[in-house]
Amino acid sequence: MSAFRLSGAAAAAALALSLPSGAAALEKVVFGTNWLAQAEHGGFYQSVADGTYAACGLDVSIVQGGPQVNNRALLLAGRIDYHMGGNMLQAFNAVAEGIPVVAVAAIFQKDPQVIIAHPGKAETFDDLKNLTLLIGDNGFQSYYQWMIKAKGFTAEQREPYTFNPAPFLADENKGMQGYLSSEPYLIQKEGGFTPKVFLIADAGYTDYSTTIETMQETIDTKPEQVKCFVEGSIKGWYNYLYGDRAAADAMIMADNPDITPDKIEYAIEKMKSEGIVESGAALELGIGAINPEKVEDFFGKMVEAGVVSGDIDWSKSFSTAFVNQKVGMDLKPN
C-alpha cells in the first residue's frame, strides 16, 4: 500500500474522532498525477498529509503517473475522479474530440518548460536561434511550432531529444529542452557547470500547466465534491510552499525513491523564484486562478502556429466556477 493511502487514512481517522456521532463518512475520491511523485506535486500531497481534504469531507487517494501509466485514460474510463493535466493543449484537444473533460484549476500559472544553453552561448531567448536545439517530438509538435511561428526559429536547427543530456554536455553549440526544476539541476550535478536557462513562458508562451481536470458530469452532479477538492488543493499548495511540508515530502520520497531532499529544495526554490505557482492572476485571485483572457490568448497563438484548429470552442475547455475566489491566500505569510 502506498504511503499516500496510509497518510490519507490516518488523516481521515483523526478527523473521524473529532466528528459528532452519526456524522457522514468521508467520500472517497482518486486523483491521478501525470508523472512520478515530485515536489511539483507537493500541494496535493500536503492536503492528504495534513487533513485538509478530510476537513471538507474527502478521503483522497493519489495515484502516480509515469512512463507506463495513462491516468488521463483512467479519468475518461471513470476509474479516477480527478487528473493532473499537463497543459491547456490537452484541454483544447478534448473539446475538439468531443470529450467532456474540463480544467477546473490551473496550479501552475507558467509552463515550466525551459531551453538550456551552455554559459556564454546565449544571453537572450533570441540568441538560442544560433544553436542546434535538442527538442523532443511532443515539444516539436507544440511549443516549438510556436517558437518557429512567433520567434523565428527553424525546423532545421532542431534535433530530436532522447532525454539523454550527453549530446548537450558534449557540444557547447547545442541547446536542450528541459523542465525548470529538473534538467538544469542535473546539468549542474553531472556537467559541473551552471547552464543558462530560458523559461519559454517568459518569452511569451502563455500556457497554464499542472491543471486539475475532471469530467463535466462530475461538475454537474457533484459540485460540492469538486469545490472541496479544488479548494483543498489550493490550500495544500499554500501550506506546502510556506508551511511545514515534512510529511508531504516524506510521502513523495517514499513513493518515488529517486527524489531526494536536495531535489525537493531546488524545485521549490525555482517554483517560487520564477513565479510558476504564483504570478499573473494568482497574485490577486489566489493559487489555481484561471484567466479566460489568458486562455483565449494562448489559444490564438496555437491556432496561428498551426497546432490546433481555429474552430474549437476554447471556452469549453475550462471552468472558473471553483477558482478566482482568493481561497487560501490568508495562509501565506505576510
Architecture overview:
This protein is an alpha/beta fold. Helix content is 41%, strand content 16%. The protein has 15 helices and ten strands. It has a five-stranded mixed β-sheet, sandwiched between helices. Helix 2 (42-49) packs across helix 12 (246-255). The two termini are 39 Å apart.
For the largest beta sheet, what order do the strands appear in spatially?
2-1-3-10-4
Based on CA atoms alone, the radius of gyration comes out at 20 Å
Order of helices and strands: HEHHEHEHEEEHHEHEHEEHHHHHH
Give the termini distance in whole angstroms.
Answer: 39 Å
* Helix content percent band: 40-55%
- Derived structural class: alpha/beta
The major sheet is characterized as: 5 strands, mixed
The tally of beta strands, per DSSP, is 10
Shape: globular
Mean pLDDT across all residues, rounded?
93
Report strand %. 15-25%
Low-confidence stretches: 1-23
Number of helices: 15
Task: Give a quick summary of the entry.
The protein is α/β, with parallel strands linked by helices and 334 residues long. The chain has 15 helices and ten strands. The two termini are 39 Å apart.
SSE order and pairing:
Blueprint: H1 3-18, E1 27-32, H2 42-49, H3 52-55, E2 58-63, H4 71-76, E3 82-87, H5 88-96, E4 101-108, E5 113-117, E6 132-135, H6 137-141, H7 143-151, E7 158-160, H8 166-170, E8 174-179, H9 183-191, E9 196-199, E10 209-215, H10 216-221, H11 223-242, H12 246-255, H13 261-273, H14 282-285, H15 292-304
